[in-house]
Write a structure and sequence with these properties.
The complex is a heterodimer of chains A (about 220) and B (about 120). Chain A has about 220 residues and is an all-alpha fold. Chain A contains 9 helices and no strands. Chain B folds into 2 domains: about 80 residues, no CATH class; about 30 residues, no CATH class. Classes of the chains: A mainly alpha (about 220), B mainly alpha (about 120).
């Protein structure tokens, strides 16, 4: 995927991106392959400065989150639910848009064109809603740490306490798994988070990593 | 603020204020180039990004461009997940960041309400 890049990208990261991009056209948890591709195409257009392609709540949400993450308030969430989205559909859209932005920002950083999106695959969404998910501080329900998370939580979190940034997408476990997979290969293995001298990337020390992370989050006005 | 903690671990004090005022010296090797690259990769000026990429590669080597792109991508994802779902900061982090949040103006972000109420 990034083999043509002038700048070397690790093989494990390349393989994960390849697999995740190919799966964007698969049926998901609440959306068909075609719907999922429409969501990520809208996000891509928004990120490139395009105008929104319609009035559909799904595409409007995808557009807004990709283009201006600074402006999100709970009103956006409740408005989307009032317009007919379920909480779990909302979470799947957030997961998809966030990963598409991830892929496109990386390509832009490397000086490459955005990765090619796949063709949609036929099939039905799984429509699996975890009964373990409860409201615990975020807008949508999440699967708690510990015993409250049940077997599913234990499997998703590997039996270890996980911060909200990992649990946030847990109402749609398939999206959480993909986000977590990216987190481990792109940032660092979470177990090594407190090891400030651990170097996950050949090109940058941990403080240098945190300069980029901190500046990006400041530009996106992310309080978390 | 992980940058601050990563400095403490190696006996250095970094100027975290440069994260919101990037003309300041952050005190990290190649910090100015990293800040400029982060701004450019999230911006819309392709020529500016080409210049920032070249400056970063010259200063820290080509592997830094790959790594900085990956980190910018990862946090572009995380920021949308956090802001898009209204997740609050863990209680211990709220308590540990009172002064720095005030100094950097982070409490003025719209997403602050998810943690501060």
């Amino acid at each position: 995927m990034y083999r043509k890049s002038k700048f070397l990208v690790r093989a494990d990261l390349n393989a994960i991106h390849q697999s995740q991009v190919e799966a964007l056209g698969d049926p998901g948890t609440w959306f068909s392959g075609q719907q999922r591709l429409a969501i990520v195409e809208e996000a891509r257009s928004a990120l490139a400065g395009g105008s929104t392609s319609g009035r559909d709540v799904v595409l409007l949400l995808a557009h807004q989150l990709a283009a201006s993450p600074q402006g999100f308030t709970e009103t956006v969430y409740t408005g989307a639910l009032d317009a007919g989205l379920s909480d779990a559909e909302y979470v799947e859209i957030v997961g998809l848009v966030s990963r598409l932005v991830n892929f496109d920002v990386l390509a832009r950083g490397l000086g490459m064109d955005p990765v090619q999106l796949p063709a949609p695959k036929a099939g039905e969404p799984t429509r699996e809603r975890p009964i373990e998910a409860v409201l615990e501080g975020a807008w949508a329900p999440t699967i708690p740490n510990g015993k409250q998370g049940g077997e599913l939580g234990r499997g998703l979190y590997g039996g270890r306490w996980k911060p909200f940034i990992i649990r946030a997408l847990s109402l749609v476990p398939a999206e959480l798994r993909k986000h977590y997979e990216l987190e481990e290969v792109q940032y660092l293995p979470l177990d090594r988070f407190p090891e400030y001298e651990y170097r996950h990337h050949e090109g940058l020390s941990r403080p240098q990593v945190e300069v980029v992370a901190g500046r990006v989050s400041a530009l996106n006005e992310c309080f978390y | 603020m992980v940058l601050r903690e990563s400095g403490r671990a190696i006996g250095k004090t970094f100027n975290v204020e440069a994260l919101v005022r990037p003309t300041l010296d952050i005190g990290v090797d190649g910090g100015a180039e990293l800040l400029a690259f982060a701004d450019a990769v999230l911006g819309a000026d392709d020529g500016g990004l080409d210049n920032a990429r070249e400056a970063l590669a010259d200063r820290l080597g080509p592997a830094a461009v790959s790594a900085a792109s990956i980190i910018a991508a990862n946090f572009s994802k995380n920021d949308r997940i956090a802001n898009g779902l209204g997740i609050p900061i863990e209680k211990h982090a709220i308590e540990a960041t009172v002064e720095i949040r005030e100094a950097l103006g982070l409490n003025d972000y719209r997403s602050a309400v998810n943690s501060l109420g």
